Amino acid sequence: MLLEEVNMAEFKKLVKKTKTLIIPFGTVEAHGIHLPLNTDTFIIREAVRKAASETGVFMAPAIEYGVCTSTSMHPGTIGITPDTLRSIVRDIVRDGYRHGLRRFILISGHGGGLHVNALREAAETLVAELDGISMAACSVYEILGKEAYGIAETKNDSHAGEMETSLMLFLAPDLVKGRSRQEYPSFPKPLVVKDKLRYWKGAVWGNPEAASREKGERLFGLMVTAIKDLVGKIGKAR
After folding, report:
1. What is the pLDDT of residue 150?
2. What φ, ψ does residue 227 adopt, rounded to 5°?
3. Integer distance in angstroms from the first to the last C-alpha of the chain?
4. 2 bridge partner residues
5. Range of the domain at 14
6. Fewest Cβ atoms closer than 10 Å to its Cβ: which of 35, 133, 173, 223?
7. What CATH number does residue 51 fall under?
8. pLDDT band at residue 145 using 50, 70 and 90 as cut-offs
9. Percent of the chain as helix, strand, coil, to the nearest 5
10. 151: burial class by Cβ within 10 Å (0-12, 13-18, 19+)?
11. What does the pLDDT look like over 59-87, one tens digit per residue?
């Protein structure tokens, strides 16, 4: 159920049937020269939409901005700070709680460390603050099983590579503009560098050439199943 498409009378009735809200999080972030800036948002929005429709829970409008560090200097990336993301989460969940929602799934199509940690930190605060609330916070790629990673031929595939390109070929092939070159950046960890482009020029981490629509369809199915499983788990949480 798309939260933004129900009216207030419908919400009042539906919230008696389900108290679960899934909130998808994405980014406006460079994904090579072959994928759109909203790749993370597009993928997670469609996966959550299908999972929510099949489980009868609420889906919130996607939050389209996220914390982007490694791609912060690439053209088109527009990010927000971890503080901003935590504030957005706290405000949405507190207000949803006030209207009767009790179970919240924060699920991201972006796997950046600071981004996902901000979601988790906000969830920890809210669980301590609000009575009777259950929360989950993760990147969707964390909850995919081994089968999903067996589909990808590319080792260490991470960003705008085989998996994301395959998913976009399945979900929106008209938005895929050819293929970027494969790329495997190497940042000088533990150093924190300002000139990210020096170490990662193309905003690709993996091999887009290995992508296919068929792989994307299989990955999407596994993604939807993983989200549905999470809905079931949070429904039993105390």
Report:
1. 87
2. -70, -40
3. 24
4. 59
5. 3-236
6. 173
7. 3.40.50.10310
8. confident
9. 45, 15, 40
10. middle
11. 999 999 999 999 999 999 999 999 999 99
Residue 188 preceded by cis peptide, ω within 30: no
Q: Do 30 and 1 contact (CB within 8 A), yes or no? A: no
The Cα 231–Cα 238 span in angstroms is 13
Backbone phi, psi, residue 31, to 5°: -130, 65
The total of structural domains in the chain comes to 1
Single pTM value for the model: 0.95
Place of tokens 């460390």: 113
Closest by CA position to 134, among listed 232, 206, 60, 207 = 232
From residue 179, give the alpha-carbon distance in Å to each of 56, 103, 105, 207: 37, 40, 33, 9
Taking only the tens place, the pLDDT of each residue in 83-137 is: 999 999 999 999 999 999 999 999 999 999 999 999 999 999 999 999 999 999 9
Radius of gyration, CA atoms only, the chain: 18
> What are the pLDDT digits (tens) for 193-213?
999 999 999 999 999 999 999
